[in-house]
Amino acid sequence: MKTPLPTHPLRSAPDLDPLLDAIGDARIVLLGEASHGTSEYYTWRTALSKRLIQEKDFQFIAVEGDWPDCFAVNAAIKQDQPTYGSAAQLLSTFNRWPTWMWGNWEIAALVEWLHQHNRQRPLAQRVGFYGLDVYSLWDSLQEILRYVEKQGDGAVHAAHQAFRCFEPYGDDPQEYAHAVAFVSDDCQDEVTEMLRALRKQVAAQQPDGLLAREQQFNAEQNALVAVNAERYYRAMIEGGSASWNVRDTHMMETLTRLLDLHGPDSKAIIWEHNTHIGDARYTDMRREDMVNVGQLARQAYGRDQVFAVGFGSYQGSVIAGKKWGATPERMTVPEGTRGSWENLRHQQLQGENALLLSQELRGHEALQKSIGHRAIGVVYRPEFERFGNYVPSIIPDRYDAFLFLDQTQALHPLPTPQNEHTPPDLYPWNY
């Protein structure tokens, strides 16, 4: 008879004590999810994030979301009195498909808590909320124009040049991507010059205090998004792993900049899909020369400073689209396939939830080889799941801990009207 894996019961927030102990003094805590549409992933990440903020003084949460939309949330939760109405109204800015990822009632509850928490702290110590992703090319360009025109000289000319370069494509990134695939003209030089000019302008200023520096950071970050988004959309047309690597490298660069902004003792909580936070070197992503945030963070800061927590479930329901840009639906998540990580944990735990710590798993020989581990993107077809939704993984090396939730339910989206333009299709890596 095989020896069962060591586990810890997982019923309520106090059951996270062994995980908090294992995290120790890590500077970066990466919290994953096996889908972008499962309620329990959001609620358990919220429970853990609250404890990290309250007990270990983490300074910010950074998520797999667009910078401008998340920065609006960041500014709102640092106000003494809310001027945004309700959290649900604030989150209506997340109106680009997939709207449900951050426009949902679970995030609304987190936003309310962050605002209440921040009101009890000095301005310079209020917890932030930022976006790491690279899709917001046009929104970021518009933010830059507003900033440089308010500031006056410096980067105004470069910003207008960049904006005019993209103007023929409206605000449709897919049109730009397809256009530059067939002609030599692109906007790379324009966005690079805009970033250079903006950095020069920012370097000449000396803002006082974290919040003032944060406003400058916002402008520079939008320019960085424009540079890397332009690279991303060009790489996407070429195919292969290039666009994935541009995206995750951008997210890692943004995380590094945020840590630098908040000072040498700052600590970060990251919310992203398992495919971004679980070290790619211990999955089949490595064969495709794909890197991710989990790998890059460990390489940059050291294994002892980075703690990655994977999430997964055996069966339930999820919010997703049947194809890219489709109307989101509540779908059934079938039982984990035979022999998968999820199926084996279900058998062992007989329907119970559990916390597993990698330091306690490494002595088990069976876990030193790859095992199928479910990953559901924003596009999902349950009937085809076994053909492409399992990522071979060495679990104890990919993550430092794992939250197994046997039965899970779909996320609760807000009724947000969708913007007519959808980012280009990322399939098969729609995480």
What does this structure look like?
- There is one protein chain.
- The chain is an alpha/beta fold and 431 residues long.
- It has a domain at 133-241.
- The chain is 43% helix and 13% strand.
- The chain is built from 16 helices and eleven strands.
- The chain has helices spanning 17-23, 39-56, 67-77, 87-90, 105-119, 137-151, 156-166, 173-182, 188-203, 210-238, 242-262, 274-277, 293-301, 341-349, 358-361, 395-398, and strands at residues 8-9, 28-31, 60-63, 128-131, 268-271, 306-320, 329-333, 354-357, 371-374, 390-393, 401-408.
- Strands 1, 2, 3, 4, 5, 6, 7, 8 and 11 form a nine-stranded mixed beta sheet that branches. It has a two-stranded antiparallel sheet with strand order 9-10.
- The radius of gyration is 21 Å and the shape is globular.
- The two termini are 38 Å apart.
The sequence of SSEs as H and E is: EHEHEHHHEHHHHHHEHHEEHEHEEHE
Residues in β-strands, percent: 5-15%
Tell the overall outline: globular
- Structural category is alpha/beta
Main beta sheet, described? Answer: 9 strands, mixed
Protein name: Protein-L-isoaspartate O-methyltransferase
InterPro entries: Emycin_Estase (IPR007815), Hydrolase/PRTase-associated (IPR052036), UCP036794_erythomycin (IPR014622)
Topology:
Elements: E1 8-9, H1 17-23, E2 28-31, H2 39-56, E3 60-63, H3 67-77, H4 87-90, H5 105-119, E4 128-131, H6 137-151, H7 156-166, H8 173-182, H9 188-203, H10 210-238, H11 242-262, E5 268-271, H12 274-277, H13 293-301, E6 306-320, E7 329-333, H14 341-349, E8 354-357, H15 358-361, E9 371-374, E10 390-393, H16 395-398, E11 401-408
Parallel strand pairs: 2-5, 2-6, 3-4, 3-5, 6-11
Antiparallel strand pairs: 1-8, 6-7, 8-11, 9-10
Helix pairs in contact: 6-7, 6-10, 7-9, 8-10, 9-10, 10-11
